[in-house]
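note to self — DONT lose this again. spent like an hour looking for the file last time. sequence + predicted structure for the chain T wanted, 597 res
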Amino acid sequence: MAQRDRPVTLLFGRGDPMRSGGPHGLLVDALRRLCDLEGSGPLAEQQQRLRARIGAHVPAGERERVVLFLGEMCGVPFPDDGAAMLRAARQEPKLMRGCLSRAFLDWLAAECEEAPVVLVLDDLQWSDGATVAALDEALRDLHEAPLLVLAFARPEVDEVFPRLWQARGLQRVPLKGLSKRACERLVQHALGPGVAAEVIARAVERSAGNALYLEELIRSIAAGRSDEQPSTVLAMLQARIGGLAAGARRAVRAAAVFGERFWRGGVGAVLGLPGASDELAGWLSALVDAELVQPTTTSRLADEQEFAFRHALVRDAAYGLLTAEDLTTGHRLAAGFLEAAGEHDAVVAEHWELGGDPERAAASYVRAAEGCIDRGDHVGALRHVAHGLACAPDGELRGQLCSVSSYAAFWLDRHEGLAETAEVAMARLRPGSRGYCRAILPAILAAMGRADEAHVDALVARLLATEPDEDARAADVEAVATVTSSLLGAAAPASLLAALLHRLEASVRLAEPAHPASRRYLQDVRGGLAFFRQPRPWTMLAAWGDGAALCREAGDSRLELSLLGSREWGWLELGDAEGPATACERSRRRWPRARTS
């Protein structure tokens, strides 16, 4: 690619086993590398860098939206003053996924217009569902663009993503071990021509084409220990670690607690030393000299020097030298360090869990699941909920996990156990809290699906009596509006619909200052009442038209298309068949990817 006359845009993202639960993890890594963003940089500087690179080729009319949402994806948030779509997506998680997806696809399309794009993903087996889904959409929608996605993964990727890009012309190239001739040439190149042929043959045979094992065998031969070689690469690496000075051995074992990447301050925290300790610096320098670890050029933790093990097996070898007590203590200390440093909640949760503190682990899993919900990654949220529930929490923590679970499952159309999960959440959470307001909607709709009228009436009464907290107002509006719309076509009494409409109007008045787009729900319900219950076609057309305009501002493509489709019936009843078709066609052109949101 470097020899081509035409430039190529190269993006590189790497998976990390300790961060596999973060939404859009590999994409975020690739975009942050492209924009030269470091975790330690001031926010204003990161915003400037992201705006300059992401907005470089995006058309002017779309640039601000794309920059704002990719900033949101990359953890470089911008103010939402004057940005109605961003504000709406922050209030309503179900909008966020579609907005992030459209922003990424629009940016990628603009980049492909400028130059061919090659996106390289390493360790895809440690990716997340949001990244895989976003790239699936890109491969579908940009199938004629000069875009190449090159992913490297271990065989277990098929277990994590069983249907990975099957409909996108996926080509698999299994990597084999080094050939016998390649192994011989590598040994001769490293050790020179004076090595006996039988020594080379024995090393080549024992390595079985494993490049890392062969590298360790070469080290052993160079050190004059060709007859004392362990039978596995892991044992060989552990033997090499055992030959280090005592301080360096302690440091590499402490580093292994964090995963394949670690931080100087974190190693110090596990060892009980200040991060700035000269003694610690000397030990880490010895590990670098021994080619066991290497410093990275950037760090995802602010003001922390980051290192990486040269190979996953090096980390596994060091980790395997820790006793059970060392592991528990080390993970607990690592969790405290990472939590204070602002690491992803899912990473912190795993360390608390391995450190023997299930309650703090569950609390971190709640935050991780909520973070996925806020990014529209409902599948990721359910994964964190499952880990959190495995910690056997009770009380409010269990209620919060069940609330996220019921909300995510509802929007994924996964109805098995939905009612029970929502009821558990409501029983353990305070009425009016955000978790409670999220759980009551799937609980009511599940009861409707069972035709359990008595329970529906009881739950709707609870909904009407709920006074939402400030951070729950958007969820409350969504719940009241959705329940009201669901009852319009049923035999619900007019008095109940009137009470729900009155409650929705009050909820929108409370939510509107922070979330102006919440009024679109009210317009949807008003139009539905005018269409189904109080035949007033002009009122219906006006309400649904205003609602569609608010949907456009909020980026709610699904509801906009639904409202315009509903208006079409109203126009048809008035005898106008051309006006609605024209309006819907304009909306389809505006939202060509509406099905992805």
